[in-house]
Design goal:
This protein is of the alpha/beta class and about 180 residues long. It is built from five helices and five strands.
């Protein structure tokens, strides 16, 4: 059975290291997972005044895409020891209106990457705080904080290091098992 996984990338840069990581994770994922990127860059900032009978079309499309998914993979950099604003906005858009969150009970995993040595640790843990409130069971182990991400990829966009490729393959296999366990 194929599992639909929505992939949210916290960076909006065209040549983002985290977008490259998301693509690499999709290539390393077990065949049971079908990863689909869900764009967040065009979402208007969440404003409850706009969330009436006809919310912005971008919100409706985003909510429908997350609702249709079975699980969510978050791939994000760290900005100022926290999440990028675009990702936090996407979380807010999906969690509203109150009582109609598209996130509830969707298993998820987080991978963070940074050129720095701690690999987005702060963003990873800040995101986990929101996921607890949103009732999203998050994969606990293995944790994916990828430091030195500016040296992570080969010329074709693949993972340059065999040991990192092995780790990321294991991460995606663990995510597939986590989805099965939490959906059962």
């Amino acid at each position: 059975m194929s599992v639909n996984v929505a992939v949210l990338v916290g960076s909006l840069r065209r040549d983002s290291l985290n977008r490259k990581l998301a693509d690499a994770l999709a290539a390393l994922a077990p065949s049971s997972l079908r990863l689909e990127p869900v764009a967040i860059g065009a979402l208007p900032l969440y404003n409850p005044d706009l969330d009436g009978d006809s919310p912005p079309a971008e919100w409706a499309r985003f909510r429908a895409a997350i609702q249709a998914s079975d699980a969510v993979l978050f791939v994000t950099p760290e900005y100022n020891r926290s999440l990028p604003a675009a990702l936090k906005n996407a979380i807010d858009v999906g969690s509203r209106p109150t009582g109609r969150s598209v996130w509830a009970r969707k298993p998820c995993a987080i991978a963070t990457a940074s050129p720095g040595g701690i690999g987005g640790f702060g963003a990873n843990h800040h995101l986990r705080q929101s996921l607890v409130f949103l009732d999203m069971p998050a994969l606990q182990q293995p944790e994916a904080y990828i430091g030195g991400a500016d040296k992570l990829f080969d010329a074709a966009g693949g993972i340059a290091s065999e040991s990192t490729r092995t780790f990321l393959t294991g991460f995606m296999e663990a995510f597939a098992r986590w989805i099965e366990r939490t959906r059962a």
